[in-house]
User: What shape does this take?
Amino acid sequence: MRDVAVIGVGLNEKWGEIWEKSLRDLYTEAALNAIDDAGVDHIDSLYVGCMTSGLFVSQEHLGSLMADYLGQNPVPATRVESACASGGVAFRQGYLEVASGASDIVLVGGVEKMTDVSGDEATFALSAAADMEYECYQGITFPGLYALVARAHMHRYGTTPMQLAHVAVKNHKNGSLNPVAQYGFEITPQGVLDSVMVADPLHILDCSPITDGAAAAVLCPLDLAKKLSKKPPVKVLASAQATSTIALHSRKDMTWFDSTAVAAEKAYKAAGKGPKDLHVVELHDCFTIAEIVVLEALGLVERGKGGTTAESGMTALGGKIPVNTSGGLKSKGHPVGATGVAQIVEVTRQLRGESGPRQVKGAKVGLTQNMGGTGGSCVIHILEAA
Amino acid sequence: MANPAKYWREIPQRYRLEAAKCQSCGEIFFPPRLICSRCKSRKFEKIKLSDQGKILTYTVIRTGPSQFADQTPYAVGVVEMDGGGMITSQIADCEFDQLAVGQRVRVEFRRLQKQGPAGILCYGYKCVPA
Amino acid sequence: MVGIVGWGSCIPRNRIKVEEIAKVWGADANNYKRGLGLEEKSVPTPDQDTISLSVEASKRALRRAGINPLDIGAVYVGSESHPYAVKPTGTVLAEAIGATPEVHTASFEFACKAGTEAMFVCLCEVESGRIKYGLAVGADTSQGAPGDALEYSTAAGAAAFLFGKEKVVAEVNETYAYMTDTPDFWRREYEHYPRHAGRFTGEPSYFKHVLGATKGILERAKKTPKDFTYVVFHQPNGKFPVNAAKALGFTKEQYETGLLVPKLGNTYSGSSPIGLTAILDVAKPGDKVLMVSYGSGAGSDAFIYTVTDEIRGVQDKAEKTRKMLDENKRYIDYGTYAKYRGKILKAE
Assistant: This one.
């Protein structure tokens, strides 16, 4: 397999409730930004990561739609779905297509348009990432599922609601420096605890929002990168993916994300790196508790001690290992299918030194972790400044 | 309107907790499966989960889907049934401040959902403090 | 010998007091409490309906009877609040208890005596030999019109009885029916709440049929009131059954065990059946029990049971009615009650 590089990245202008832009507008805008950033004049293939355009905007066949709207017919175009990991898995598919030699220039975009339906319908659409017949039928909601994980983690390790709140505060601090962020403002720990309770112990400020947005990246073989692009290429050191059970109740341990742990092990091995070698991490903080458990599963903190990470400043912008410098899903927003690709965008810019006030000094190696449902799927990439 | 078939085919599980036990390694699956995820055997014994169990983790849903608006807030938990099998279930008829990991519960038959004012009624299991 | 082989009941745990209802409508609570002889009633949660209560009551009956549900040949549920107008309550009930597919079912309706009609039919089917066991249920989650006198008493509950010929715990000695066309209380198709004829529901309705059925069965069985340990009448409020008992010559000791309405309310098709379960929970071998139901429209079903030795060891196999009534209660306010009972006009 060939070495692969990211040579272009882009987002649409702003993430949030973007009333004037449709799903196809958002994807096209982000894709064109990435293509311009790459400086390429054509692509060989494209991927669309999107969880459920069907339930949100009643549109399927996104491959054809996006290839058409990008003026790229007749290139092959593939829709990828893995719930909230749709973007990350799409990126992996694009990576594999280049690594295998099947294509040279591949565009990967992720998009979700979530505000064309009512809040109720959006909640229902998101719940399709869980076990519809044996979890959702029973009345559990997505925050409810993560609340079950939080309760189990609190019971076993003594993690506190205040520790959860610090994760949200840290991510909002970073997000306040990100002009694209949906909620780019700072919040306080007590503000989190005082916000309305959604599912004990998770408050509304422990939960990522409903967002419209898109992100895109352009991939090519590493040895073509310098020829094609003026920007410093970022090498994909590792791409790993794993699954776990669809339902939380099918797992022996509800305080752990096995798919993350398995994918992380595979990724570290393939990259020849370990947790200590990482300079920046973008992970899937759909809920504050998710960041806490993921950090443990990535081996960045001892098992059970995830609650101490934000509280102690370990994962702050100037901390030992900055996590979610973009603001994370919490502050930046979580347009489901776009998130995984946006993580690649953030880390790529960090490794190129383009992150401005959010820059992690000397960042050379970064990791992205994107997760679907309650960890039913996980995809991890390790990137390195080439 | 969803075809009632989607609801009807889960009735043995929702009404009677019918499950499957792998004949090779004893792993219990609810709902039943075609292949054991532990040992890959394809032979199962038909069993029923016990109607008694204990709470492994729980939460109280305070912002729920509109179909449960009349019952919000309500508790939900993962319950381990005696003898094996884990289910996600509402915990009804309980005082929230008395919910605890390890609490004993038993299963009761309840109406889970209504498909609108004219659609079918959907029944199933909830747990209540034992 | 043919009779009851297992019984069980299900009472929701929420209660609302007369005071709480009276407050909203500006009525005199004490007046209602005295006049109706009741203090509070049961309220079902939005996830409890006639089907779900029937299932729980039936499971208790099965635990006491100790039979294989596949041996049940018929399942009849009597109610005036069947969740479906077309699709019998018994289809879901039979499926839930594992009695399908070789089983008859139909929904019975006769106001508050639909449950005892179901009991009579099960008894006859078993007696004829065509079925081995029959399951009869009286259950309701009826609605009382807001601000109407009936709102104070309309409650929810279910009682289930398995009839058979083996290990009978309460033998049926005699039955009797007394029925006429008497329009005291009715509900037209598509109407949400029933209507009633005020004072006409008393003497020419409840009392005529309850007394008529009682006198009829006593004559047929050649018995007198003092032959009975227990008597249970249909109990729409705390006054009617007590007055009926007095008029017929029954004592407080005989009717008090089965008189649940002061704390339960009127469970309609569950009324005298749930009262019977409370009696069976504590009855001793040899006890004679008289049960007389009443359903508006109107009619009364009467049964005479003799408790057998088989009742020992079976009473404790499931939760007892009085315990369900007195313990684990949760009081709610009128707003919660209105929400649970779907009386609040919502946006569609």
Notes: Helices of chain B lie at 5-8, 11-16. Chain B has one domain: 5-129. The beta strands of chain B are 18-22, 28-29, 44-48, 52-61, 74-81, 86-91, 104-114, 121-129.
